Amino acid sequence: MSFVVEYKVKDVGKNAKYFREKAVKMTGIDCLVEVHPGLVRFRFVKELSEKKLKELDSFMKEVADGVRVSS
Q1: Confidence (pLDDT) at 29
Q2: Using CA atoms, how far apart are residues 3 and 38, in angstroms rounded to an integer?
Q3: Which residues pair with 43 in a beta bridge?
Q4: More confident residue, 13 or 37
Q5: Using the 8-state DSSP alphabet, how is residue 20 labeled?
Q6: Alpha carbon of 25 to those of 16, 21, 38, 48, 69: distances in Å?
Q7: At the top level of CATH, which class does the domain 3-70 belong to?
Q8: Is the dihedral of CA 68, 49, 45, 1 positive or negative?
């Protein structure tokens, strides 16, 4: 089972490898990343703590003008 977090984004300009490396470094939890026009989806192998989720929110807002739409 995976923990899915999705972000609506305005400006991606980055690939899935970039987002995965940053997310794994930030959370310490492995994940798969899908990048679609207007959407970035993270599939973590386990649930993120509220603190880690807020860190990911902040990172996504900074690099892709992203807003979390589901978790």
Answers
A1: 95
A2: 20
A3: 4, 32
A4: 37
A5: H
A6: 14, 6, 24, 13, 22
A7: alpha beta
A8: negative
Pair 71, 4: CB distance under 8 Å: yes
Domain definitions of the chain by residue range: 3-70
Which percentage of the chain shows pLDDT scores above 90? 86
DSSP state of 10: S
CA distance 6 to 61: 12
* CA 6 centroid distance within chain: 7
Of 35, 21, 45, which Cα lies nearest the Cα of 66? 35
Q: In terms of pLDDT, which residue wins out, 16 or 12?
A: 16
- The pLDDT score that the predictor gives to residue 11 is 73
User: Which token pair is 17?
Assistant: 């490898």
